[in-house]
Amino acid sequence: MRFTWKDAVAAVLVAAIVVPYVGYLVRGEMPFVQDPRGMAATGIAFGLVAALLAGRAAFDPGALIRTALGTGVPALGLGVAAAWTGYGYLLAAFVIAIVVTWALGTLIHTRALPPARTAGHVRQHV
C-alpha cells in the first residue's frame, strides 16, 4: 500500500504538534502556547484528529494494529496528565508517545511492516 492523503494529513498534524513543542522548548513559548498545559491541549486536539483519520483501520484485527492502538491510548493518558498537572516531563513523554504511535501506524498502514500472522497453536497429546 502507498502513502495516502490520510497519511499525509496525519503527518501534518503530528508535525503541528512536534514543531510547536520544539519551539516551546527553545523559546519558552509559542503563539497560542504559553505553558505545558497549552502545549498538551494542542497535542491532544491534533492527536485526536489524526486518530480519527485512521478510522476503522485502527480497529482491524492484527497484532501490529493492537500495538499501535496500545501506544495511542497511553499517549492520550499522558496528554491528559500533562494538561492536568503542567509537568514538563509528562509533556515530553506525551509528545514522544504521539510520534511513536504515528510512526507505527504509518508503517503498518503503508505495509512497510509486514502484517502480523496468527499462527495456530497445535497441542500435542502425549
UniProtKB/TrEMBL annotation:
Q: Give the keywords, sorted.
A: Membrane, Transmembrane, Transmembrane helix
Residues that span the membrane, as ranges: 7-26, 38-56, 63-84, 90-108
What is the recorded name of this protein? SPW repeat-containing protein
* Source organism: Pseudonocardia abyssalis
